[in-house]
Structure formats: structure tokens, C-alpha cells
Specification:
single chain; Aspartate Aminotransferase, domain 1; Aspartate Aminotransferase, domain 2; 5-stranded antiparallel sheet; 18 strands; 38% helix; transaminase activity; PyrdxlP-dep_Trfase_major; Aminotrans_3_PPA_site; transferase
Length: 463
């Protein structure tokens, strides 16, 4: 790979893209005068665009996905071999890779038992929502249908998952939404001053207690589940403060509320453990995952439950409506679990969980050093190789910088050949956090190149 391409060979691709592709999360008006970006090739931590320019990817494919890096021949071969043997059969029957990966996955998730294959993180979350609603009818006479979700959290782009969307700019203009989804306050200590009554100390316990207040307000006999990200992703890379998760678990047990942990971003190594919830001693009833499960080499998502949840759907086999009457077409595609098996093997054999922790510590140290140098950085936070740096106009008031300035930092880094992320069209007037999620294979040199690029960009954008 030398990073060079004949631009004329790709001109037709660019024009076809401009004429026919509807890109994700992008306003297309600028493409009337500017070329869309085409990513042509990837290797390790780096990708090349249609002009042959090399970029260090600090966001794992743009959306926290390519955990083991680009160009993994062994994953591609595993997928090819499986597709030649059996590409697909509906998941009403089993498959060899489906069974093998489920066994591998459950081995990494003590207390969990059953894997439901599906197409995407959004759909995995919808499966959990449907199960929660069906349990309400089967066990509680139609009560306990309400699902609590947290301000700033994100669970998907379908209408049902947007009903549980804690990012108001993501959900704007797409309502009305499904009923019985109820928001609880965020747990972001850096912005606790924006929450009425938040204490100076023990904020984590207080933030969890706000969930109990919502349960009591709604009525404990109406609340079926609580859905949370272990580390809030697109809402600002937010790790819950000390005391939060223990109290959350206590509240769920007290009121017979099922705990649904959305690991679509954090799952399969991103925080330095197999799953983010394992950092905090949580025992969930549902765990959903997608992005890093196969590192983007094939589409796969999973909704994982305990045996106790599974048993609720088989306890009365005489009821023709009592089982989970659901299907996900491409949950039967064998490429996903085949890729996931090899992806998991790579993480284990190359000790990437430890590398994630080590390189995450290095990046956190680098970002903290940048915070000392640049007053525009108000806070750095995160876990493992999942970090954020919040930009503020004033550290005292914590007033966010204008979104255009945060975007200018991203653009400057891009010009330097480093791709970083930023919260985007998520929280009104709060899209001011730079986001970092390099692949778990990142080296010390990679980490330093990323933070050096941010250093230079901050200096140019803010002077």
C-alpha cells in the first residue's frame, strides 16, 4: 500500500456518489460544489481517500466500530470460508458459527446466558424493548410497560429507539414517538450545576437517586426497565461518578425493574474490559451490542439476556402467544458470527484489552497535559480508548464554545491527516466535546500523533 491512486480512475466513483448516495449524518448541499469524500482503502490504523491522502483514524471507522483495525486477512478469510459453506439460513434454525460464537460470547459474560442475533444496534435495542413489553403483559397483567432512559444517552435511529433517545437534536422533527418511554436525568458531574439540587459531594449517588424519584413519580408498578449506556457515547463521552452504578443496581432490585445495558459502543473491548458494564460490577438483565462485535468486517448485533429472562418466554408452552414472536432476517446471515469469532480471537491472542487500558492511560495523560496548556479544554474524561475533551469558552462558567469552533478543530486535524470526532447534532448548544476512539491496536506513537494534531489545531483555532 503506497497511498497513491490515479485520481482519474476514481472520478466516476465520485460523480456516482454525488448523484446517487444519500450519506449518513451529512448535509448534502455542499456537495453541489465540493466532492464527497471517498475512503478507498484501510490498513491497520490508517485509511486513504480518493486523492491518495493518508489519515490516521482516531475514531475507528467514524463511529467506534473497527476495534481491531483495517486489513485483517484472517477475518476476511473466515467470512469467505463460511459463506462458501453456508451463507444464510433463517435463525429459526441454528448454524455452526452462530452456536460457536454464542458460546464464546457467553463465556465472557458471567451471569448472562442467551444470545439473540440481529442486524444492528438499533434493532438489538428494539428487541429488548419488545421483550420488556411482552414481559409486562405475561407477568404483570399489562402493567410495568414503561421504559426509563437517560438524558444524553443514545440507543438508535428507529422510531422506537428514538423514543428512548436522550439527545434532543437527534430526535427533533421525527415525532410523535412511542408512549411509555420516560427520561431520567444525566449523570455528568462536569455539568451537575445545570441540574436543580445537585450536591457538591456524592453526586453519583444523588444522580442515581433521581432515577428512584422518577420511578416513584411514575408508579413502581408501571416501570418495567431502565436502559443505560455504561459510558454515554455521542452525548459527550460521560463516565458515571463514584457511587452511581451500585445505587442504580439497588434501585432496580428494589422496584423489580429490569436493567438493560446498551453496549453498542462500549462492547467488545472499547473500555479495556470485554464489556463496559464489567468495569462497574453491574449485573444486567439485558445487554445489547453491535459495532465492535465483528469490528465492521460483517454486519452483526446481539441482544443477550439471562436465563431468568429467557425462561419467561418458555414457561407455558401451551400458550400460542407466549413465546417471543420475532424475527430478524439478517440475524440468520453466517458472516457476522464467523467474523465475530475471529475478531474475538484476535483481541485475546494480541492482548488488546490490556493494550486498550495502557494506551487509554497514555491518551488520557496526553489530553490532561493539553488541558493544562489550552484553557479552552474544560474537562477530559472517559474509559480505556474511549475518551472525550470538552471545549469551553470560559472554565469558570463552563460556557460551551460555539459548535463551529469545535468543528474547526476537527477540520484542522483532518488537514493534518488525523481523523477525530466531535459530538454532532446531539445536545442543543452542547455539541462541544471532541471524541476519540482509536482502534485497540493503537501504539504509543499513534496516540502521540493524535494528541499532537489536537494540540496544533487548538493553537490555530483558538490562538
Amino acid at each position: 500500500m503506497d497511498g497513491t491512486f490515479n485520481e482519474n480512475d476514481l472520478s466516476r466513483v465520485v460523480e456516482a456518489d454525488r448523484a446517487h448516495i444519500w450519506h449518513h449524518l451529512i448535509q448534502h448541499k455542499p456537495f453541489e460544489t465540493n466532492d464527497p469524500r471517498i475512503i478507498v482503502e484501510g490498513k491497520g490504523m490508517r485509511v486513504w481517500d480518493q486523492k491518495g491522502k493518508e489519515h490516521l483514524d482516531a475514531v475507528s471507522g467514524g463511529v467506534w466500530t473497527v476495534n481491531v483495525g483495517y486489513g485483517r486477512e484472517s477475518i476476511c478469510k473466515a467470512v469467505y470460508d463460511q459463506l462458501m459453506k453456508l451463507c444464510y439460513f433463517a435463525n429459526t434454525a441454528g448454524s455452526i458459527p452462530g452456536s460457536n460464537f454464542a458460546e464464546m460470547l457467553i463465556d465472557k459474560m458471567p451471569g448472562m446466558s442467551r444470545v439473540y442475533y440481529t442486524n444492528s444496534g438499533s434493532e438489538a435495542n428494539e428487541k429488548a424493548f419488545k421483550m420488556i413489553r411482552q414481559i409486562a403483559h405475561k407477568k404483570y397483567g399489562g402493567k410495568k410497560t414503561k421504559i426509563l432512559y437517560r438524558d444524553r444517552d443514545y440507543h438508535g435511529s428507529t422510531l422506537a429507539t428514538m423514543s428512548a433517545g436522550g439527545q434532543d437534536e437527534r430526535t427533533a422533527q421525527y415525532g410523535p414517538f412511542a408512549p411509555d418511554f420516560v427520561r431520567v436525568p444525566h449523570c455528568m458531574e462536569y455539568r451537575k450545576h445545570e441540574l436543580d439540587g445537585a450536591p457538591v459531594e456524592n453526586f453519583g449517588e444523588w444522580a442515581a437517586d433521581q432515577i428512584e424519584e422518577v420511578i416513584l413519580r411514575e408508579g413502581p408498578d408501571t416501570v418495567g426497565a431502565l436502559c443505560l449506556e455504561p459510558v454515554t457515547a455521542g452525548g459527550g463521552v460521560i463516565e458515571a461518578p463514584e457511587g452511581y452504578w451500585q445505587r442504580v443496581q439497588e434501585i432496580c432490585k428494589k422496584y423489580d425493574v429490569l436493567l438493560h445495558i446498551d453496549e453498542v459502543v462500549c462492547g467488545v473491548g472499547r473500555t479495556g474490559t470485554w464489556f463496559g458494564y464489567q468495569q462497574y460490577g453491574i449485573k444486567p438483565d439485558f445487554v445489547t451490542m453491535a459495532k465492535g462485535v465483528a469490528s465492521g468486517y460483517a454486519a452483526i448485533a446481539c441482544m443477550v439476556t439471562t436465563e431468568e429472562v429467557f425462561d419467561m418466554f418458555k414457561e407455558d408452552a401451551s400458550d400460542p402467544m407466549g413465546y417471543f414472536r420475532d424475527i430478524s432476517t439478517f440475524g440468520g446471515c453466517t458472516a457476522g458470527p464467523a467474523a465475530a469469532i475471529e475478531n474475538m480471537r484476535i483481541i485475546e491472542d494480541e492482548n488488546l484489552l490490556q493494550n486498550c487500558t495502557d494506551m487509554g492511560d497514555r491518551m488520557m495523560g496526553n489530553l490532561q497535559a493539553l488541558m493544562e496548556k489550552h484553557k479552552v479544554i474544560g474537562d477530559v474524561r472517559g474509559k480505556g480508548l474511549f475518551l472525550g475533551a470538552e471545549l469551553v469558552a470560559d472554565r469558570g462558567s463552563k460556557e460551551p464554545v460555539d459548535e463551529k469552533l469545535a468543528q474547526a478543530v476537527v477540520a484542522d486535524c483532518m488537514a493534518q491527516g488525523v481523523i477525530i470526532g466531535v459530538t454532532n447534532r446531539s445536545i442543543p448548544s452542547r455539541n462541544n466535546t471532541l471524541c476519540f476512539s482509536p482502534a485497540l491496536i493503537a501504539t504509543a506513537d499513534d496516540i502521540d500523533q493524535i494528541t499532537d494534531a489536537v494540540d496544533g489545531a487548538l493553537g490555530r483555532v483558538f490562538g
